[in-house]
């Protein structure tokens, strides 16, 4: 089963409402917001990072960037870096930019910037650069149960 199949099955099994959108391939958050007809801030950007000796998923509004220095200080992390394309592919089977914000699909802890909760609806690529899902932030947070914090600036 593809990541999209696994995610759709999970949401449907739990009765979580969502919308699936097929569109032209997009490779930036700006392109994704444009093709979806949504705000950039409603994009749930999922980044795979290596924090010391473990990989984590960091999710944030797409109009923000990761606050590496703050994360290291507040989370007592000595070394923090983005995963390489090869590491992302090995961990998720996907390419950067196509990863849904569910670290649990890949056995990764999910850390989510608290500002994503300002969006009633979030949008994200769902395992493919040409497929997006739109769903309520509250449903996402209840299902994924991410660690919340100030991870973006």
UniProtKB/TrEMBL annotation:
Residue stretches making up the YbaK/aminoacyl-tRNA synthetase-associated domain: 23-140
Pfam families: tRNA_edit
GO molecular function, one term: aminoacyl-tRNA deacylase activity
InterPro entries on file: YbaK/aa-tRNA-synt-asso_dom_sf, YbaK/aa-tRNA-synth-assoc-dom
Protein name (record): YbaK/aminoacyl-tRNA synthetase-associated domain-containing protein
